[in-house]
User: Which sequence fits this backbone?
């Protein structure tokens, strides 16, 4: 298999996953590089092309777990429990938020909820693929996705309200009005 | 499937619709089609998911230089040699272990077979007083007699036995293998028997190995292999006597 082709096909997705794990660009780059270095060190062992993608994601996740075991070098935030059956946020509310806020909100969720959600949103992994990658049952994936979405939406709803109530400068308002005219 | 179960499954349904063919999802989608309340909930769920997904995809910006750095790895990282790859190393170790076990078993089996051969021949040599069927006065007569009876005569007598008085010979059957016995007897009554067998009858023995002196059944024996034959020499009373015959070999 051609290494360049594999990099081109998967590096962005892997970086996104790494970013969701590490929470910053430097560590995400390092995780991605280490994953591809291991692929190269493995030589031609991965002959089945369909197995390359799950192998890359699983390897990256294992490297990250190794990091975590060695030292608590990555920040960890936890959001308190929320009711996850309620639809707390609407598409309009999400639209009002900038993309960095949405990403930051996701990064603040604890690992075991954030990871399935990141794989779901960013990489279009199916719930079955997520179960295989994180080595958890399908039922656990579904319940974590459900819980994670509720946690994320709850946090987004709070931030959306803050945006609504934010005090902005008069120049900003005037500029916005000028743009709309 | 109730609505709560359907919701749990539909929350794992990706906005792009790739999961529509999944059996679990299909059932949940069917449930949503039947129930307008569930359908409305699902539409809202998908709309929010699409929105969040779009935001996240634009938020994560892959550094421009990353791809170049990944491609450059090719020049730095070399594939690990097979002995540093745990799977290959384990497989190699397993094969070596298996081969070792097989070799051990074969060796054990061949050793047991040699013991059996040695003991049987010594017993025969000691107990059967009239243990030859053809009496001869020299080795040539013996070879002629054996050839006439369809027995191979490409064996090689030890030098120490070549000028010794021959008594005669016999061919015996040992587990389906033909064994040639050549009997030597000295004037003082001392006597040795040489048994010759095809190497194929005792597989696993080292080819052209040096004589091995072992006591069996109350008699000293020497066994060795040479030119595709296994030789067993027994009698003479003691080890030194046999060693002298073999030293000159």
Assistant:
């Amino acid at each position: 298999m051609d290494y360049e082709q594999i990099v081109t096909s998967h590096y962005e997705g892997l970086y996104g996953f790494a970013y969701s794990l590490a929470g910053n660009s430097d560590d995400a780059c390092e995780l991605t590089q280490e994953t591809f270095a291991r692929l190269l060190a493995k030589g031609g062992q991965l002959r089945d092309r369909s197995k390359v993608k799950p192998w890359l994601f699983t390897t990256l996740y294992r490297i990250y777990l190794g990091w975590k075991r060695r030292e608590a070098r990555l920040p960890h935030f936890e959001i308190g429990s929320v009711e996850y059956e309620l639809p707390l946020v609407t598409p309009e509310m999400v639209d009002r938020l900038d993309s960095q806020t949405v990403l930051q909100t996701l990064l603040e969720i604890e690992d075991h909820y954030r990871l399935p959600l990141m794989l779901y949103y960013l990489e279009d992994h199916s719930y079955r693929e997520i179960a295989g990658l994180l080595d958890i049952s399908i039922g656990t994936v579904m319940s974590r996705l459900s819980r994670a979405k509720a946690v994320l939406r709850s946090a987004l709803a709070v931030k959306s309200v803050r945006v609504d109530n934010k005090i902005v400068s008069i120049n900003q308002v005037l500029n916005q009005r000028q743009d709309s005219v | 499937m109730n609505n709560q179960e359907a919701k749990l499954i539909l929350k794992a349904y990706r906005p792009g619709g790739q999961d529509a063919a999944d059996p679990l999802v299909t059932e949940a989608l069917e449930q949503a089609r039947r129930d307008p309340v569930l359908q409305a909930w699902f539409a809202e769920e998908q709309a929010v998911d699409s929105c969040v997904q779009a935001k996240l995809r634009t938020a994560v910006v892959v550094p421009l230089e990353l791809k170049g750095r990944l491609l450059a790895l090719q020049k730095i990282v070399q594939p690990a040699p097979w002995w540093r790859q745990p799977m290959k190393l384990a497989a190699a170790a397993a094969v070596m272990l298996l081969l070792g076990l097989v070799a051990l078993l074969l060796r054990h089996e061949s050793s047991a077979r040699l013991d059996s051969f040695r003991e049987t021949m010594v017993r025969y040599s000691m107990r059967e007083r009239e243990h030859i069927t053809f009496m001869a006065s020299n080795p040539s007569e013996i070879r002629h007699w054996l050839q006439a009876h369809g027995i191979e005569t490409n064996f090689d007598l030890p030098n120490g036995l070549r000028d010794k008085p021959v008594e005669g010979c016999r061919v015996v059957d040992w587990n389906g293998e033909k064994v040639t016995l050549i009997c030597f007897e000295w004037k003082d009554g001392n006597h040795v028997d040489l048994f010759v067998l095809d190497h194929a009858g005792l597989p696993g023995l080292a080819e052209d190995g040096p004589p091995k002196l072992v006591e069996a059944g109350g008699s000293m024996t020497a066994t060795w292999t040479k030119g595709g034959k296994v030789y067993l020499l027994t009698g003479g009373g003691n080890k030194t006597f046999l060693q002298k015959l073999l030293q000159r070999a």
Summary: Strands of chain B lie at 134-135, 166-174, 177-185, 191-198, 212-216, 219-226, 229-235. Chain B touches chain A at residues 7-9, 11-12, 14, 16, 18-19, 22, 41, 44-45, 47-53, 55-60, 62-63, 66-67, 69-71, 73-74, 76-80, 85, 87 (CB under 8 Å). The mean pLDDT of chain B is 84.
